[in-house]
Amino acid sequence: MSAAGRSADGRLLGGYVVLYLVFLYLPVALIPLFSFNDSIQAAFPLKGFTLGWYQSLADNEALYGALLTSLFVAMIAASVATLCGVTIAYMEMRGGSRAASVISGLARLPILIPGVVAGIALLILVNLAGLGPSRSAVVLGHVLVALPTTVVVMRSRFAAIPKSIAEAAADLGATGWPTFARIMLPLAAPAIGSAFMLAFLTSFDEFIVAFFLAGAEPTLPLFIWGQLRFPKALPSVMALGTTILVASIAIAALAEALRRRGLSVTRPAPGRIPASPVTATR
Amino acid sequence: MTRDATTAGALSAKRDTVFTAAMLLPGALATVVLILFALSLVLFLSLRNNAGPLLGEGFTIENFVSIAIDPLYWTVIIRSLSIAGLVTAATVVTAYPVAYYLAFHAGSRRGLILFLVTLPFWTSYLLRVFAWKIVLAYNGVLNSALIVTGLQNEPAIALLNTPAAVVITLAHAYAPFAILPIYVSLQTIPTSLLEAASDLGARPFTSFRRIVLPNSMPGVLAAALVVFVPTVGDYVTPALVGGPSSTMIGSLIQSQFGKANDWPFGSALAVVVMLVILAVILLARHADRAFGSRT
User: Fold this and answer.
1) CATH (domain of A240)
2) In angstroms, what CA-CA distances link A99 with A151, A179, A274, B25?
3) Minimum Cα–Cα distance from B155: chain A residue
4) Which Pfam families does the UniProt entry name for this protein (chain B) (predicted)?
5) Across the interface, which of A238, A253, A279 has its CB nearest the CB of B180?
6) Which CATH superfamily is domain B63-292 in?
7) What are the average pLDDT values for consecutive 10-residue runs of chain B, which has 295 residues?
8) Rounded to an integer, what distance in angstroms lies between the CA atom of residue B31 and that of residue B41?
């Protein structure tokens, strides 16, 4: 393959990648576009600019309730999932325990369980436990959904810490807890922040499992789902959707920045693959 | 744990056992209760009669028999498989060139493109599906754009409420899932292998077919799996853009736990979905082994 041929291929492929990204983002970009459009119909031509749909969100009590529920659920679910992710990944990387690798494998299993199956399985579980559909039930559901993400992020972080650091700690007399708490946790801190934020996002945007588990207090995506029945509410849904998109993108960008900073602490130039559960099915 | 042997002492060994147990506890609790126990409950319930108490009564295989003999369920299962299969094929085929570009041509833009393709992963799935509802609606974005640009005089495309709308929407919603696994597997191919092929006179297409494609097969199969699993059980997209002719197995499960209120039967349907997924995983494993031997 000549150098010229290779770069021509590259340009062609580069054009394809641009088209692909347009396809990826165009439909989603319509939501912000029409959220500023002064019409109930989401159709061209645009009717005129308005902030009215955003104002209509301001005095919606049900929306605030759903937002608070979502924030509450996401905070707790992300904390629990991060705690599990950190401990599971650390114990697996430390080696020496068969249980640790079995648990780590199990924790990544939810990638292979469709949301509807996870949803009904947990619905049966919470009813059996006497909890019933409730905020706590959604928290449990979201711990399950976010678990693969946190485990994957933490595994790649702990794998990047040179073995020699743990060995040096052991030579100097540090045992399990001090090594973990005073050496590994500080080294992994940015990745822990990243794992928490990604788990938070996963929970905050999650709909399929929450649909089965939410009781009288809907989460934000469930609130949106309820609004989709009313054609008149569509523009407000788009205004709300735009707000959620902007917040999600900001948090995801922050998580990515943290994760990269974390990797550069002990490794000069890693192959920068954004951590995502989809890279970890194997 | 050999490194602990150097710091012997019975006390520290005991402390280490406590530490190990404490560190394993959160993960063990979460995985055993939320995954193993919850899934066994589904299996258990699928073998019960729909009666009285939460967990039904007696033991029966009636639920599975009704699924097996009623052509309606076969239709829905086959439709779910076809839709998920089409979506998987479409996402993997369209993602492959992007992954290839990332692995071999992206250069300094790699970080940015990787971030852009992973970003949708972290945005709301419901909103991504909702976006297509407004695009495909009869008086929606697509038709109105065609009219405004003068390409059509009246709404011409009636995709909403057809299985095609489900395929398009799901393919878009899960598109970014396919890129990363393929990219990761392409990245592990040593460039020396490609140089050697070219030195030995292999034409670009030959070295793609003989080296790149077989070596990236594990990534392709992983990508296929992560797209197939959530799409085969999806119920949101059929409900929002699919209409009655696109009912999928996920929709049936959801209604058994909702309006129809037959949890044991819904569980049996869920078991069928999991069995289908298991079969697909085994198939992928088998294919992987067939290709993997070439490395």
Assistant:
1) 1.10.3720.10
2) 15, 20, 28, 11
3) A43
4) BPD_transp_1 (PF00528)
5) A279
6) MetI-like (1.10.3720.10)
7) 54 79 92 94 91 79 90 92 94 93 86 86 84 83 81 75 89 87 88 83 81 87 91 90 88 91 93 94 84 54
8) 14
